[in-house]
Amino acid sequence: MLITRECDYAVRVVRALNGENRLSVNEICEREEITAPFAYKILKKLQKADIVTGFRGVHGGYAMNKKASEISLLDIYLAIDPDMFIIECLDPQKPCARNGAKGRDCLVHKHLCDIQQELCRMLSEKSMEEILQ
């Protein structure tokens, strides 16, 4: 799993919105140095994950839908990239060609599964509140 630029920017969007009643996309972009098309794409995914709320109209914009203490890094990363794996063979949709081949298990696969689980656990324990203090 690479923590993509989009994941990084999503954390920055949440950082901009934290503690604000509402911000326009332009305000978010200025604060976090993100382009508007990229910000809209990220905000749409964060909205779908119920992390932010969007408001239409003249006084529209975006606001946090949850407290920073209720949002983990994993929540944000999975909102952006739901198929977040450290290596492709961990994806159930793309099974490891070597694991179980010729009646043998891949010696690396099990360790990578353990690492994936530990990484997800660690990311889930880091709230945005902790990170933003």
Describe the protein.
The chain has 133 residues and is mostly helical. It has one domain: Winged helix-like DNA-binding domain superfamily/Winged helix DNA-binding domain (Arc Repressor Mutant, subunit A, Orthogonal Bundle), CATH 1.10.10. The protein is built from six helices and two strands; from the N terminus they run αααββααα. The chain has helices at residues 5-17, 25-32, 36-48, 73-80, 107-125, 128-132, and strands at 52-55, 61-64. Helix 1 crosses helix 2, helix 1 (5-17) packs across helix 3 (36-48) and helix 1 (5-17) crosses helix 4. The radius of gyration is 18 Å and the shape is elongated.
How many H/I helices? 6
Structural class: mainly alpha
Helix content: 40-55%
Q: Which segments are poorly predicted (pLDDT under 50) over 5 or more consecutive residues?
A: none
Biggest sheet, strands in spatial order? 1-2
Oligomer category = single chain
Question: What would the keywords be for this entry?
Answer:
two-stranded antiparallel sheet, single chain, Arc Repressor Mutant, subunit A, mainly alpha, 133 residues
Compact description:
By secondary structure, the chain is mostly helical. Helices cover 50% and strands 6% of the residues.
Strand and helix layout:
Elements: H1 5-17, H2 25-32, H3 36-48, E1 52-55, E2 61-64, H4 73-80, H5 107-125, H6 128-132
Antiparallel strand pairs: 1-2
